[in-house]
Amino acid sequence: MYRLILSRGWANIEVWHMKKPVAAVVAAISMVFAAGAAHAAEFMFSYTFDTGDTVSGTFDGTGTVGTEVTNITNVNVVIDGVALTGPLYAYFYTGYTGPNGSNCGDSSCFSGSGAFASANPAINNFVFANGSPTDIGSRTNYFYIIPWTNGPGNQVATQGLQADGNLINLYNGQYVPANWSLVEVPEPATWAMMLFGLGCLGASWRLLRRKPGAALAAN
């Protein structure tokens, strides 16, 4: 450990060796992200269809993107620059019965609770749509990624419908896992903590690089 003693009005100011404050600040930032991830937060997603059409949006939820985000609310979806009309709800597809099962398209196979999203492109199950989960015909626009029996190695379906009737991926099965992204949006408090940590690093560098009136002695 080094002790930095400054003159000219500064006295007995001790500064750790740079390795220690750097590690401390990095650890603090990591702890902020780890703690915040387990609480309710805002998430941002994007996907590019195999047709080149793009979808993006946000929602609130609980959980971590590396596993599952549940309790999804406040959904906003934009397809090719046009926002879907809402309010939008998160529905859960209950009709998947395995790779060799049959698919279901009626209202009985959708639930108003249980939807989840993940950064893992293989385990999403959500339908972001307006209308009622008990009446498929009432939905005028939507975006979904759900488990679906498409044959070996293709157990995910995605589709988008805009309010003007433009249907993207009329036939399920063209899902591109690499085109899916889900990230957590840092809260203002998290950004503030990060900026504070960076400020501490900058101050430490300035103190150690300051030469006039400073004597550096090693313990």
Largest sheet: 6 strands, antiparallel
Distance from first to last alpha carbon: 6 Å
H/E order of the elements?
Answer: EHEEEEEEEEEEEHE
Which class best fits the helix and strand makeup?
alpha+beta
Read across the widest sheet, the strand sequence of neighbours is: 7-6-8-9-10-11
Q: Work out the number of β strands.
A: 13
Strand content: 25-35%
**Gyration radius, to the nearest Å?**
25 Å
Report the uncertain regions: 1-19, 213-219
Percent helix range:
10-25%
Estimate the mean pLDDT confidence: 77
Determine the number of helices (DSSP H or I, runs of at least 4 residues): 2
Outline the structure in words:
- There is one protein chain.
- By secondary structure, the chain is α+β, with helices and mostly antiparallel strands.
- The protein has 2 domains: 66 residues, no CATH class; 146 residues, no CATH class.
- Helices cover 19% and strands 33% of the residues.
- It has 2 helices and 13 strands; from the N terminus they run E-H-E-E-E-E-E-E-E-E-E-E-E-H-E.
- The strands form 3 sheets. Strands 7-6-8-9-10-11 form a 6-stranded antiparallel sheet, with no helix packed on it. It has a 5-stranded antiparallel sheet with strand order 5-4-3-2-12, with no helix packed on it. Strands 1-13 form a two-stranded antiparallel sheet.
- The longest helix is centred in the C-terminal third of the chain and has 22 residues.
- The radius of gyration is 25 Å and the shape is globular.
- 23% of the residues are buried.
